[in-house]
Design brief:
single chain; 288 residues; alpha/beta; five-stranded mixed beta sheet
């Protein structure tokens, strides 16, 4: 059997795993081989798992919730430690917005469907506002920094080298860090049939994820060069951004499932999800 792992550049652990031999070494004693399927948009992870394109993948907090809402039978397998400095909601450095209520009626650039949707929806909800009615969400792009600076957009949620560069230039300031609002974990999940049929493979892959994180923590400059090559941006900015990550993989816990349930409830009330989701259903059933 060949186990296929989905990899998109915005998930650093999976990116580094795909460039190292930890997964191959983890699966070899089980008589299995590994292949990597590279794709560009982490939001599509649930659908690609459901279609059998790959067996195992990882994203931020929102895509697995959306996958459940869309009817994909996924199982959480592991999560990163919280990443409080991974991303931020930025506003113009000299602009008028000083708290979340200042976004009302404005446009916010973000990765729609990513963890950034969870961040914005929860921040608005906590302030008595709604993602669905009180702001206009729009897809972030290469012009987001300029549009924020000139006042065309009110807020911009970003991460990685883009965040480091925006703060370095002084054109933007942080309204909220991701950790001010959400745990902002990297989340790893698989198709239920795969996870329940071969739990030993899932366990081996989780071990390999931690080994990839250990490599990134020990080789920050090389990890930054890889990120810059895959996603653009300056290597120095990437080194700053990656230094903010915990590089630690943790098990799925009741506390994590509660975090996800809170997110699912907020996203459903905001109209982002087509139906309610019970995140506790996305766990593997044990034999017997």
């Amino acid at each position: 059997m060949t186990v296929t792992i989905g990899v998109h550049a915005n998930n650093p652990t999976l990116t580094y795993l795909s460039r190292l031999d930890h997964a191959q070494r983890a699966l070899a004693p089980l008589g299995e081989s590994v292949a990597f399927h590279h794709y560009t948009n982490g939001v599509t992870t649930g659908a690609l798992l459901g279609e059998g394109v790959f067996d195992f993948g990882g994203t931020g907090s929102t895509p697995p919730i959306s996958a459940q809402a869309d009817g994909h039978d996924i199982v959480y397998t592991a999560v990163s430690a919280p990443r409080p400095d991974h991303g931020a909601l930025l506003v113009a450095a000299d602009g008028p917005v000083h708290d979340i209520t200042g976004l009302k009626g404005g446009t916010v650039h973000l990765g729609i469907g990513s963890w950034q949707t969870h961040l914005l929806a929860k921040a608005l909800h906590s302030a008595g506002l709604s993602y669905g009615t009180d702001i206009t969400p729009a897809a972030a792009g290469p012009d987001s920094a300029r549009l924020l600076a000139d006042g065309t957009v009110t807020g911009w949620i970003t991460q990685g080298a883009d965040l480091a560069a925006a703060l370095r230039t002084g054109d933007a300031r942080v309204l909220l860090r991701s950790g001010d609002v959400i745990a902002d974990r990297s989340v790893f999940f698989a198709r239920r049939d795969f996870a329940e049929r071969r739990p030993e493979i899932v366990a081996a892959l989780v071990t390999a994820l931690q080994q990839a994180d250990d490599w990134a923590a020990a080789h920050p400059r090389e990890a930054a060069r890889i990120a810059a090559g895959d996603l653009g941006g300056a290597t120095d900015d990437w080194e700053s951004a990656l230094a903010a990550l915990p590089w630690r993989v943790e098990p799925v816990t009741e506390a994590f499932l509660a975090e996800q349930q809170e997110a699912a409830d907020i996203l459903h009330r905001a109209g982002f999800l087509s139906r309610p989701v019970t995140t506790a259903h996305a766990v593997a059933r044990t034999a017997g």
